[in-house]
Each structure stands twice: as C-alpha cells, then as structure tokens.
Design brief:
- By secondary structure, the protein is α/β, with parallel strands linked by helices.
- Helix content is 25%, strand content 29%.
- The chain has an eight-stranded mixed β-sheet. A two-stranded antiparallel sheet has the order 2-3. A two-stranded parallel sheet has the order 8-12.
- Helix 1 packs antiparallel against helix 2 (47-55).
- The longest helix has 15 residues, at 29-43.
C-alpha cells in the first residue's frame, strides 16, 4: 500500500533563500546562468521555466564528486544505477507541458512525476505548477530527494515512496504526467489517471531504441499519441526497493 503523501517545504523560495554555492567554480551562479541561457536560446524555452531553472541550483542535487560538472548538459549518476537527467532533456519536457497547458492558470494545474530520483525535476515542477505529486520506488532515493529539497520550501510538493507503475489513483486525475524511466509500454494506470485534455510525456523502449512519447487525452478513453525525440533513460521497473 502506498504511503500517505508527504509535504515538503512551504513556498517558492526567494533567491536569498537558496543554498550557497561551494565556491568550486563550475557550480557557481554564473555557470548555471550560462548553461540555462544557452538552453533557453537553443530550444526556445518558456520564459517562466527559464527563470525557475536559473533559480534552482542543480549542483545541490548531484553527488559531491560531480558538483564541478553540474552545469554541463550531461546526465550524472546519483547512485542505485540511476541518473539525474540532462538539463536540456528536463527543460524540453517541462516546456512541452507548459505550452500544451498554456491556456490554464498554472496554479490550478496538478502534475504527477514518475521517478523522483534526486529531486531536481520535482523542485522545478513545484515552482511552475499548483500541485505536484512525485513518486519514487527506491527508498534511499526517496529519502535523498527529501534531504536535497529540505529548506527549499516546496509546500505544494508531495513525495511518495511507492510503485510508480501504479500511478496515484487517490490524487487523480492529473493535468500532466511526466516520467523519468522507460518501459516497453505506457502503463494503463497512467492513461486512466490523465485528465481529459491533459498531457503525458514518457520515454518508451522500442526495438530501435528509446523514444520520447507524448500522449494527449481526448476524453472518453481516446488518446492521441506522438513519438518525439530519441532519448536515453533508466528502465521502468515494477515494485519498490527498500
């Protein structure tokens, strides 16, 4: 049985509330701004997303040994055979959600994230949408994400240690679902928990490799599927791991 959702923090932090950088150089504000501004220009990212990515310190979410690479556009290990995704991948997926739901006040939108990992993407989502649920199947990563997010005052973020393949029926329906692991097919639970007009983004494994798939709910059990870019994510697995 899934645990009761847990609240983390309280509000969108001001710049002064963010943790100080280490002074190592490549995890500095300047390095972060340079990376995010480059991605914003290259991928024409939503302005609100760019502001949030500039504010959230990615180096806080990577292992200390990789802090100097936090502001390169690369995936980095976070332990347990998992990774923090490339900033460009995270940015482009969230940007697609923002654009699809652009006609709705974001504070009224409910998002489900499958695969909390280290908590970086959850931190971004919590600053862009009204209500965010993030599910992680590996207990140590669930606890790591809570530690990483401590003090960042994400009041609208609920973190759940559970099997992500089941989604979160008690909080459904969701305006958007975003997954950070690739399965052979999209779980039926996710499709059923997507609100009519909502968007689902998930990597899917195909014979030729992983591809990012977009699903739009048309209502009445009808869905529109679109395959996007080739991607590379960790596998989507059943169950939980303590």
């Amino acid at each position: 049985m899934a645990q009761k959702p847990e609240l983390v923090g309280r509000s969108i932090p001001q710049a002064a509330q963010l943790p100080a950088v280490s002074g190592l150089g490549l995890d500095s504000d300047k390095a972060r701004f340079r990376l995010i501004d480059t991605l914003a220009h290259s991928h024409q990212l939503d302005a609100a997303l760019v502001e949030v990515m500039r504010a959230v310190p990615r180096h806080r979410f990577v292992e200390p040994a990789f802090a100097s690479r936090a502001y390169e556009d690369v995936a980095l290990p976070i332990g347990h055979q998992q990774t923090i995704s490339r900033p460009s991948t995270v940015g482009r997926m969230i940007d697609r959600i923002l654009r699809h739901l652009s006609g709705i006040d974001r504070k009224h939108l409910k998002i489900m994230e499958i695969g909390t990992g280290c908590g970086y993407q959850a931190a971004l989502l919590s600053r862009l949408f009204g209500e965010v649920y993030s599910i992680e199947r590996i207990k140590d990563l669930h606890l790591l994400a809570k530690k990483n997010l401590r003090g960042m005052q994400c009041f609208n973020l609920r973190m759940i240690f559970a099997d992500g393949l089941k989604g979160l029926d008690q909080a459904a329906p969701f305006d958007a679902i975003i997954a950070a692991a690739a399965g052979d097919a999209i779980p039926d639970a996710w499709m059923q928990q997507l609100k009519s007009g909502g968007i689902l983004l998930t990597p899917v494994s195909t014979p030729s490799g992983q591809v990012l798939e977009q699903v739009i709910s048309l209502g009445h059990g009808n869905f529109q599927h679109l395959q996007l870019d080739a991607v590379r994510f960790v596998p989507l697995l059943h169950g939980t791991r303590s």
